[in-house]
């Protein structure tokens, strides 16, 4: 079979505001074009659901119709024009049922909700609607033979929770997308405009209020670090990029600045100027902020768990996110070492280049295209 040139990438529903997945799909379509593929990106459109709707319940259910009723009809019509179909996010695995007879692959980023569904996470449960959705995703993933995983940890989770991979598979780490080139002067301008005082050092956390992001742990760790004898941190601020704190976290430490709306430019500026990134996550499929921060020369403190341990590499300081008192003590003891790792962090982040990831995706898809498959299957 000759090398196919036409591939359709399936992206995410923009109204769901999954910004990292939207950015990832935009990157992948551009990356494949640079390696010789004719690549197009298709995503469900918000025909029925509208952001202006007052009822969140109505938006959610109309969004389900947009995504799982209307979009598959359009996808089925358009898929015949392409040699390959690649689903950019495993949460869109149910679309495979509209693609029977086509050669399909998928990128699996994490299976954290399915871990909860399987009862692997103590104290966490899924709501009725979310449990239904995750069951549908889990069933759908069993019908996808060809998979890319963003980390070895995600691949191991898949084999344990879903089953063995039946077709082609590979681990392709996420790349650093567009971070690491901002000058300190430009970074300072953006930070000033965001209202972060120029005369105060700050620690940085990036993450939502989801349990595994461990935002309360990051804030508690910041509070503990201010009580240590680390030079310059007793007067430090904490910048937390994410949604507003929930009511359960309103007793926030002194010196906290929450930035709920931050574009990539401001995030890069914060990486560039922060004393360190606090990323005590309890679970991840990959952990993008780790390598983004390192690309900007920002020291990283993250969890001594996979995949964070492997992604962060030797230039990061690893802690136990369940023992924050000990973590604060370790950080205080190794602070001078950590702040001397800025260039080592940049060097490590270069392993996650866009060019290398694009080449690996192109190789994976080329190999998939050349493999024989039974007629009528998801190939």
TrEMBL record:
Residue ranges spanning the membrane: these are none
Top-level taxon of origin: Bacteria
All copies of the Glycosyl transferase family domain together span 194-333
Q: What keywords appear on the UniProt entry?
A: Glycosyltransferase, Transferase
Give residue ranges for domain Glycosyltransferase subfamily 4-like N-terminal: 23-163
Q: What class of enzyme is it?
A: transferase
* Annotated protein name in UniProt: Glycosyltransferase
User: What species was this sequence derived from?
Assistant: Bradyrhizobium ontarionense
Tell me the organism's taxonomic lineage. Answer: Bacteria, Pseudomonadati, Pseudomonadota, Alphaproteobacteria, Hyphomicrobiales
């Amino acid at each position: 079979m000759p090398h196919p040139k036409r591939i359709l990438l399936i992206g995410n529903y923009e109204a769901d505001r999954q910004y990292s997945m939207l950015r990832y799909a935009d990157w992948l379509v551009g990356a494949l074009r640079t390696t010789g593929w004719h690549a197009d990106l298709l995503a469900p459109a918000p025909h029925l659901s509208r952001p202006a709707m007052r009822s969140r319940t109505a938006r959610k259910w109309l969004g389900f119709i947009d995504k799982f009723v209307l979009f598959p009809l359009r996808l089925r019509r358009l898929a015949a024009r392409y040699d390959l179909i690649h689903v950019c996010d495993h949460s869109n695995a149910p679309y495979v049922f509209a693609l029977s007879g086509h050669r399909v692959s998928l990128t699996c980023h994490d299976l954290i909700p399915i871990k909860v569904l399987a009862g692997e996470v103590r104290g966490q449960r899924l709501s009725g609607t979310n449990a239904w959705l995750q069951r549908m995703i889990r069933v759908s993933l069993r019908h996808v033979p060809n998979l890319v995983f963003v980390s070895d940890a995600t691949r191991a989770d898949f084999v344990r929770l879903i089953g063995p991979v039946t077709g082609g598979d590979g681990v392709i780490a996420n790349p650093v997308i567009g971070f690491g080139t901002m000058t300190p002067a430009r970074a300072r301008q953006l930070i000033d405009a965001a209202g972060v005082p120029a005369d105060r050092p700050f620690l940085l956390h990036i993450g939502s209020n989801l349990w595994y992001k461990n935002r309360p742990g990051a804030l508690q760790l910041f509070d503990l670090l201010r009580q240590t004898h680390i030079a310059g941190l007793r007067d430090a601020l904490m910048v937390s990029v994410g949604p507003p704190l929930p009511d359960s976290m309103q007793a926030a430490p002194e010196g906290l600045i929450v930035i709920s709306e931050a574009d990539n430019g401001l995030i890069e500026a914060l990486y560039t100027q922060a004393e360190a990134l606090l990323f005590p996550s309890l679970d991840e499929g990959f952990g993008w902020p780790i390598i983004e921060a390192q690309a900007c020369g920002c020291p990283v403190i993250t969890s001594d768990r996979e995949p964070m341990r492997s992604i962060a590499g030797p230039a990061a300081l690893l802690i136990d996110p369940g023992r924050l008192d000990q973590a604060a003590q370790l950080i205080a003891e190794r602070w001078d070492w950590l702040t001397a790792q800025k260039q080592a962090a940049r060097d490590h982040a270069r392993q996650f280049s866009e060019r290398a990831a694009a080449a690996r995706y192109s190789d994976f898809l080329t190999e998939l295209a050349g493999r024989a498959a039974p007629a009528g299957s998801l190939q």
